[in-house]
Every structure is written in structure tokens, then in C-alpha cells.
Amino acid sequence: MSFRSLALIIVIFCSCAIGPPDALAAKRPTNVVVILSDDQGWGDFSFNGNTNLRTPYVDSLARDGAQFSRFYVCPVCSPTRAEFLTGRYHPRSGVHDVSTGGERMNADETTIAETFQAAGYATALFGKWHNGQQWPYHPNARGFAEFYGFCSGHWGDYFSPPLDHNGEIVRGNRYLEDDLAEHAATFIERHRDRPFFVYLAFNSPHSPMQVPDRWWNEFKEKQLTLHGTNAAREDVAHTRAALAMCENVDWNVGRVLDKLDELKLAENTIVLYFCDNGPNGHRWNGGLKGIKGSTDEGGVRSPLVIRWPGKIAAGTRVPQIAGAIDLLPTLASLTGVPLISKKPLDGKNLAPLLVNGGGDAGEKRESTAAAVDELRDRMIFSHWGGAVSVCTQQYRLDRDGKLFDLITDPGQIKDISERQPAEQARLSAAVAAWKKDVLGDLTNGHRPFTIGHSGCVVTQLAAADAVPHGGIKRSSVHPNSSYLTHWTSTDDAITWNAEVLTAGDYSVEVYYACSPADVGSSIELRINGNQVVGQLTEPNDVPLRGDEHDRVPRDESYVKDFRPMKLGVIHFEKGRGDLTLRATKIPGSQVMDLRLLVLRRK
After folding, report:
1. The domain at 29-378 falls in which architecture?
2. Domain definitions of the chain by residue range
3. Around Cβ 547, how many Cβ atoms within 10 Å?
4. Is 291 helix (H, G, I), strand (E, B) or coil?
């Protein structure tokens, strides 16, 4: 055999084995980037008609991909996140509150991150989690191999705050949104050669209303052309701050999109953007009724835009109702990732409304028509605090049983119950059935806070999760980013309803603040007969801060630079009990302000 013949055989063999470049690209798994903002309303975007601000990067996702006309989330933060993560209505996963443990998803739920991780994806969350802090509720335990952010419902300062990086406390770097976007872009670059699932959960425009000068200076004296439906209740300064924060979020979305372009990954990456609830104020929202916390349209309608170049046609509009519960099955279908949840999903696979792979034009039309027909009689339920409303492709029955035609009356102005009694009765019966099915097993009791899960070494127990006794008070009525103060008596106590999952010795650190005059208090930490005793020997006299960055007054607690103190080592036996912190001696006027306990298994 001649050398030329041998070379020809080798070329043919390699061509068959490797395949053309297009075939390689077709076999490469599709990346996913999910971007979620916090307290941003449907109307806080220029692509939805708001002329008070500009959101060019999110607008580009709507222009270059698909836009859902009626996409629904929950009235508040943690329920929406649970529904996105599980594909199930939030009460099914045990989420019934936004703090003090009620935000935790049951450990037996399967998340979208676990689904993609099982398919070989690199998974990461950057930003706000809000579905539990201790393992097995921590994001690292729910399928996210990389976590950088905070587990609480809100944070007290957005400029270089203390954050959680894979369970360890670290210091953030600059304005939080900028920091989160930078971490997301870095993660994408680091995993450019393997499929990735990135969840970028911004904390803006949730209060406190903080934003760098670059964006605030544009808005601080800006004359707004559009105002909220309930204009008398609009706080214009708050609106200006929120819009400035929204523009910063959009700029950071652009940084992530630019990174995808730079790495030539945009064509093989699905990017979607949505919000977790209605706006946190009475600003312009397209005439929709209600704001954050409401089960009306304004409290639960969110934009959803999704871009996948070459697969989802630019300018696609989806008029069918959809919700956060649909994202897990839809993204799994679009990427070909198998669903692994052993529990039935409430969400629907909406991929046929977005793309139709294979077949001729007639088959594609039939596929889309079948999906539309399946959704024709769909209902989506909205729940918060016992209030339930339901929407169909045409109507919404509100929490009070009033019926509205959303096609002709999206602002829910005219109750048509008397004109449509049969529809009102049908939807009322559906709400009753949903409550029985979904809310029947919801337990608002206090599940214990877990310590020493086998999957982690460090357990953080925040003041937000504790119960204060005696004269001890929270620094705010909003527990999430609060601390405990006014600890003045040996009769006072701080307790955590706890369950130790792994017996052993644990070192204890107390994050505290204390004036020099109050140094010397002796404190003990005790559970089920085991204890550790220590003394406060060093002051940490730090002022309240955070207001130096606020653009408008806040409702939440201000913050302090709490310092860790080593209390000692305690032995834990496996089991449940009240973990109790109290003072045995108080030489000054008070013991300390307490922010956090950190328990480290030795």
C-alpha cells in the first residue's frame, strides 16, 4: 500500500470519527444562565414601556429572543425562588415565610441545580439564596457546587458586605451587584470548556436603597414622566433610587452577556431573565393592580425574556400564561437534560412554544398547536399568607372572589362576577380544591435548625433564626439582617430550636459588638446538658452604619462590623433540643449585641 493511499484512509477514518464542526457543536450541551432580580416590577423596564429609565441589555434579550406576555411569580421573595428551583408550588416544599426558618425548602425536594448537576453541568449561584442557611438547606447542599452570596432575605449593606462563599464567611468586594456579576463572568470563563448552569440572583432593587453615584447622580433630581396607578402613595425619592438600581442591574446583565460574546459562547447559551415579585413601591407598573405582597396582577406578574440564538426566533411573543413553576421542566426540555425529581411537578414544559426541533414545517405547526391546546384551560394559582387568587388565559379571580377579564381589563377595575356567575363559581371551586390539595399539608410549625450535617463542617446560626427571651430585642421588625440587642439581665436568653445531626466536638465563635465599659461578661452556651463557658475580654465598640450609603431612609436594621470571638469547644450529642445562650455575669450595663454563632465540627 502506498503512503498516499494510507494517508487517504487515515483522513477518511478521522473525518468519520470526528465528524464535521457543526456536528460537534450540535452534540455540545447547551449552557444556561438564569438571572433573577429582587423586588423589580413588570414595569421597571424600557421594553415594557417605562420611559423613566433605560434597560438596553434586558431589552436586547426580549428583542433577540422570546418575551412572555403573562408570566407569574409569587407575591414575595422566597416562595418564587422555591417554585423556580423545584417546579412545584411553594407550599408543597414547606416554604411559608420569608424569615425565621419559614423560607426553607424541605430537604427531600429536588432542585433545578441538582437536575443539571446530575447531567454533568458545572453549577453555581451568585447572589441571594433565601431558601435556608444551614445544611441540608444551604445552596451547596441543593446542587450548587459554587456559592457566593448571602442566604438571608435581604442584606443590610451592599458595599463590600460580609458574604458566604461555600459556607465560609468572606468579605465582599465593592458594590454587591457589580461583585456578583464579576463572579458570574469569572465562573463562566473558568468553565468555558464544559456545560454550565449559572444562577445569578441580584438583590436589587430590594431595600436598603443603595446604588453607586454613577447611577444615582442620573436619577436623584430626575423628573419622572410616568407614575404609579396610586400616585398619592408613591414615594418619588424611593422610585428614583429603585430605578437607578434597576439600571445598575441592567448594566451588570450586559457584563455577563459581553463575557458570553467574548468567549464565543452566546450561540450555545440560553439566557433568561425574570423578577421574584411585584415592585417594592407604588411606582409605574403598566396600570396593574397591586405591588409586592399582593396576589393581584401587579404583585405577581413578572417579565420573562429568554434568548437562545438560532433556536428561539427573535421577536417571539408567548401570550399563554406561564409561571416560575414552568422553568425547571422547560429548561430541562430545551437542553435535553433528564428530569430526576421523584415528585410530580406543577410546572409545564413550554419548550414547544419556543422552539420546535426536527420535522417539516407542518409537523412544527402541529407541535405548537398541540402545546397551545394543552394549555387552553390552564390555571395558575397565586398564594401568600392564606390569600389565594387564580388566573386563566382570560380571567383572574382575586382573593375576595371578584372576577376580572384580564384581556379587556388588565388593571382589574371592573368586577364582572354578576355578569359571569358560572365562571366565578368554577374558579371559586378550583381555588377551594387547590387549597385542599396544596395547603392541606403545609405545617407552619417550627422545624429545628440543623447543626453538623455530614456534608459540611461549618454551621452558621444567625440571630434572625433565634428566639430572644426576656428583655432582648431584635434590631428590626424585619428579622433577616437583624441582630439581637438590649441583653441586660442574667434572666435573658437566646435560643435556637436545634437538631444536632452529627455528634462530636464543635468550636464556637460568637460574632458580637460590645463597648469597653461592658467588657467582662461571662456567657454560656448549653444544649441537652452539654455546655461551653467563656468570657468577653475584648471590646468591639463599633457604630451603626449603612446610612452613609442609603439614598432614602430604610425600614430594615442598620449594620455593625461584628467581630468573631472564640467561646470555646462544646460537645454535641445527636438529637433535638434548645441551644441556649445566656449570661452568668454582667459587670456592665449589658452583655453584647449578637449577630451570629458559627459552629465548626472538629
Report:
1. 3-Layer(aba) Sandwich (3.40)
2. 29-378, 383-439, 449-601
3. 13
4. coil
Closest alpha carbon to 95 in 78, 76, 113? 78
User: Residue 380: which of 79, 83, 72 has the closest Cα?
Assistant: 72
Torsion of CA 139, 141, 143, 148, to 10 degrees: 30
Nearest 5°: phi and psi at 489?
A: -135, 150
Cα–Cα distance measured from residue 346 to residue 539, given in angstroms and rounded to the nearest whole number: 53
The per-residue pLDDT for range 174-233, each reduced to its tens digit, is: 999 999 999 999 999 999 999 999 999 999 999 999 999 999 999 999 999 999 998 899
Q: What's the grid cell of residue 406?
A: 384580564
DSSP category for residue 439: I
- So what's the pLDDT on residue 363? 60
Contacts 24+ apart (CB under 8 A), 286-292: 286/42, 286/43, 286/48, 286/49, 286/410, 287/229, 287/410, 287/411, 288/42, 288/43, 288/229, 288/410, 288/411, 288/412, 289/229, 289/411, 289/412, 289/413, 291/41, 292/39, 292/41, 292/75, 292/76
User: What are the start-end ranges of the H helices in 137-263?
Assistant: 176-190, 213-219, 236-262
Q: In terms of C-beta density within 10 A (0-12 exposed, 13-18 middle, 19 or more buried), how is residue 97 classed? A: middle
The candidate with the shortest Cα–Cα distance to 283, out of 596, 474, 494, 41, is 41
**What is the residue type of 530?**
N
Residues 67, 319: Cα–Cα separation, whole Å: 9
Same fold, 29-378 and 449-601: no
Residue ranges of alpha helices (H) inside 95-169 are 112-118
Q: Is the pLDDT of residue 112 over 50?
A: yes
- Nine-digit cell string for 550: 442609603
Render the burial of 292-319: b for 16+ CB within 10 Å, e for the rest.
Answer: bbbbbbbbbbbbbbbbbeebbeeebebe
| Structural contact between residues 518 and 485, judged by C-beta atoms closer than 8 angstroms | no
From the list 242, 228, 239, the residue with the least C-alpha distance to 287 is 228
Q: What is the pLDDT of residue 86?
A: 98
Helix (H) or strand (E) holding 434: helix 421-434
Level-2 CATH architecture, domain 449-601:
Sandwich (2.60)
Q: Which residues contact 11 (CB under 8 A, 6 or more apart)?
A: none
The full 3-state SS of 348-405, as one line of letters, equals: CCCHHHHCCCCCCHHHHHHHHHHHHHHHCCCCEEEEECCEEEEECCCEEECCCCCEEE
Return the closest-CA partner of residue 127 out of 171, 188, 179, 73. Answer: 179
Give residue 446's pLDDT: 75
Residue type present at position 382 = S
Q: Which of 216, 202, 281 is nearest to 249 (CA)?
A: 202
Q: How far is CA 281 from CA 245, 292, 379, 468, in A?
A: 14, 8, 28, 31
